[in-house]
TrEMBL record:
Function statement: Formation of pseudouridine at positions 38, 39 and 40 in the anticodon stem and loop of transfer RNAs.
Entry-linked InterPro entries: PsdUridine_synth_cat_dom_sf, PsdUridine_synth_TruA, PsdUridine_synth_TruA_a/b_dom, PsdUridine_synth_TruA_C, TruA/RsuA/RluB/E/F_N
Self-association state and partner proteins as the record states: Homodimer.
Organism: Methylophilus luteus
NCBIfam families: hisT_truA
Record protein name field: tRNA pseudouridine synthase A
Amino acid sequence: MKIAIGIEYHGAYFQGWQSQPNGRGVQDALEQSIARVAGEKVRLHAAGRTDSGVHALMQVAHFETTAQRPQTAWVRGTNAHLPPWVRVRWACVVADDFHARFSARARSYQYVLYNHAVAPASQHGRVGWYHRPLNIVPMQQAAQLLLGEHDFSAFRASECQASSPIRTMHSVGVTQQGQYIVFSFKANAFLQHQIRNVVGALVYVGQGKLDVAAFGALLQNRDRTLSPPTFMPDGLYFTGVTYDASWQLPACDAEWN
């Protein structure tokens, strides 16, 4: 049978989602724990890969197994063998033609930035940080230029292996919650480091180093070498996946708060 699972993890303890030779990938921890419940090796396929230091409030993955277990066993049993910084939130049997990655219609991320003169202690590793005051209004205006289908080469990592830089941004938001600025993005898919590069450019807008028109020009020029540096991974969260309702999955999204 095929099982889908919803997953939450603290990315600072891992070297990204993908399996690593040293076993430090989120995928490694989950596959080993699920195998102990299933009594056989399993292979996980995720909706999207996250880089080292990036967190997930709701990652979705699936695996196939011949083991017959109650659905609660895939949650409680797996979590019993996992470190406390990764948890399976839910599990359900899905149709044979479901695929966590290829059945997804969109992915969502949030970047949480602490904007204060002093770096946070209790939130270390969980939020990004910028020490100078940021003007949120031009950041909001610039972010709206990302909506729709674009060539996002200006915000693409040089080592990105995606076959095309074209992506469709369904929604984008920049909101302020006290000392925190939260950037929210939803797209059909994302390029490697795309969000961290966008956030880096929006921070330049917020401090006045770029105006809204200059941000738009970066997008149109499609040249990564002209864009500001990549922002730290600490504040980036994979927050959900959009699937057709016909798959009858539990809630596949979450938000930072």
